[in-house]
Hints:
Layout: H1 2-14, H2 19-39, H3 45-60, H4 67-94, H5 99-108, H6 112-115, H7 119-134, H8 139-175
Helix pairs in contact: 2-3, 2-8, 3-4, 3-8, 4-5, 4-8, 5-7, 7-8
Amino acid sequence: MQAIVDWFYSFYAITLANAHVWGFLASLPFIIGGLVGTVFPALPGTVLILVGFLIYGLITGFDSLTIWFFFGQTVLVTLSYLIEFLATAFGVKMFGGSKAAAWGAVLGSLLVFVLGPIGIVVGPLLGAIAGELIMGEQIKQALHSGFGSFLGFMGGVIANLVISGLMIAWFIWEIV
């Protein structure tokens, strides 16, 4: 009987009384939400992941996460947003779009605030098309540039998934 009591006590000490377990469990919804936000840009993906890390740090007293960890994670978050905006413009340029189409795609991405999540996909497409048409291009070139903006957006999503994966791998490396 004492062996069973000892086992339950050790299980309790390792799990339920451990701040690292509670910190990880509290951070998990933010990390998962961040991954969802990376694929569906209605949520601020990498920012949510970073918030999850901060919650873990607050619960554990920042004993395994240093200031350099958070500095590096902030750099990765900034990089993810930079890539998100530039990838769309790069896609337009790769498909022969003009600067007006690239700017239209970037400005069109602001439609996320009007149309919600669908605006982040439709906005750059419409913005690139509008930019080309304003510059007097034919509809075929405008559609070509719009398609490039969509492919650039998809490339940005893939790049953000890689960055999110790096962020999470670094976090796991630090806490294990």
